[in-house]
Specification:
Number of strands of chain A: 12
Order of helices and strands of chain B: EEHEHEHHEHEEEEEEEH
Number of helices of chain B: 6
Shape of chain B: globular
Strand order of the largest sheet of chain B: 1-3-2-4-5-12-11-10
Helix content of chain B: 25-40%
Strand content of chain A: 25-35%
Strand content of chain B: 25-35%
Shape of chain A: globular
Distance between the termini of chain A: 13 Å
Number of helices of chain A: 10
Largest sheet of chain A: 8 strands, parallel, barrel
Oligomer: heterodimer
Largest interface: A-B, 39 and 39 residues
Radius of gyration of chain A: 16 Å
Chain lengths: 251, 220
Amino acid sequence: MLTRRVIPCLDTRDGRVVKGVRFQGLRDAGDPVELAARYEAEGADELVILDVSATTEERAHALETVRAVRRALGIPLTVGGGVRGVADAVALLEAGADKVGVNTAAVRDPGLLTSLSSRFGAQCVVLSVDAAAQPEGGWRAVVRAGTEPTVRDAVAWAVEGERLGAGEILLTSVDRDGTQAGYDLALVDAVASRVRVPVIASGGARTGDDLVRAIRAGADAALAASIFHDGVATIASVKRTLAAAGIAIRP
Amino acid sequence: MTGRVTDRATGGGAGGGGGVPDLVVVETGSANLASVLAAFARLGATPLTTRDPADVRAARRVVLPGVGAFGDVVARLAETGLGDAVRERAASGAPLLAVCLGLQVLAESSEESPGARGLGVITGAVRRFPASVKVPQLGWNRVSVTSAQLLGDGYAFFANSYALDAAPDAAPDGWTAAWAVHGMPFVAAIERGPQLACQFHPELSGAWGAALLDRWYRSC
């Protein structure tokens, strides 16, 4: 049977791994190739790279980072951040990405999901949904690294994204990102119970138990960054916790 | 860096001795070749890419990758003559590795593209996974095999919505199969001498996948 996945995420900028809190206050967290190789050796099931470059000059380094990581990495690689159209996706795939994540560009032009899916297959297209909890309840999709709210309900957007061709939903709680306050389990449940494609929970992991909760809430995979970069937990320790909770993982 | 076979004339490539390429990866159009090229490079091989049916006939080893839709890929293989070259190679028993959609196009047809004809190298139908499971299947699934030369038990990375649904425990004629389950039992991989076709991505299946690629490469 299909196992649940543990996915470390490298936010990269200008050739380095960075990490902030709620997408702000980025600090250096290491070399992308070194971290990628270490995480694969520790049992990571996939790797996600999100390019968070602020300028065109920084972004120019993103493809080189993907090529360098690809040379070393023998597990699947998803790359997102700054994908504005099909040409950007092609460049990332040629550089070595196996899946491409889209967010802002898909909100502006939902047809992009269909274009990518018909050309590369749904399994190649990850819709990255950044969701912000609303005071009145529910979640709204936000774009531009969490800085810009949209009119879209995050759950409805994930459902529409699947219909348009996304093969996977990378679901990030903007409120929890980098906080180690635990995943937004209500958000995970709301999306996972309404789509048939796999859902990756993201934002807020602190312990292996947080990943157990995300998977029990319906996630097919759980993504984390800070806890792995900072040594709070290792991939191997998290996978042991999942296995002990009776969740099928790749040993 | 890797190059195309046709780069050799200008010194861009580095094929095997005597002008016969050691390992060529067929450019089927929309496939992402970077991961499979990187995986072979890590094993010390020098893969080249090609769109030339003559290379598919002549090379010592051929890899048929595949990403995209069944109908698009079989149409492109037919237009370019690459499909005939792959079919001949499969019939001759020469070393061949097919990956993901590369396996599916060896079959006769697929529910993904009704009416499109596959290469017909293997029997069996390609079907969509049932509604009871997440589709696409994205992730690591357990692969089981009773007895094989190249394949072994382990966990492999899959990224597919369709799979070869041979009757349970009945591999396509002349092939040995490895199996996995995702809502239905399906063919995870088949092998026949130096010919190996994997529904999973060995190039993305970590150390287990790298060891399988190494066994295939060294066996031929």
